[in-house]
Write a structure and sequence with these properties.
The protein is an all-alpha fold. It has one domain. The protein is built from 4 helices and no strands. The protein is elongated.
Length: about 110
């Protein structure tokens, strides 16, 4: 999902017509939905019942909050420069941060 999100966002910078943009949004939306369903299922199957609601609340807050923060940042940078450059200004650090978390944070790795 991370790769599709980064590639999809980069492709938005390459087009200005509605049909390719719509296809990119459909692809990234579908991927986000599939990943979200998988994450929620994994949480429900692995977290103890006493903590499940708390973990799901944190997951929802991070998932939806990051969308809000990204939108605000893109809007801010879009007021200062062309929107394509604003998207890149948010996409590149966000992608690097996501890769850093996947590599360095032991809790984010799949353990059996």
């Amino acid at each position: 999902m991370l790769a599709i999100g980064i590639i999809g966002t980069a492709c938005l910078n390459l087009t200005s017509t509605i049909i390719p943009m719509s296809l990119i949004f459909v692809l990234t939306g579908f991927t986000a939905t599939v990943a979200g369903i998988g994450a929620q299922t994994l949480i429900q199957l692995t977290v103890e019942e006493d903590y499940r609601a708390r973990v799901m609340t944190w997951w929802s807050s991070v998932s939806f909050g990051s969308l809000t923060v990204g939108g605000i940042l893109i809007g801010f940078f879009g007021d200062l420069m062309p929107i394509g450059d604003g998207i890149l200004m948010v996409m590149i650090p966000g992608g690097l941060f996501a890769i850093f978390v996947l590599v360095k944070l032991p809790l984010s790795r799949w353990t059996v």
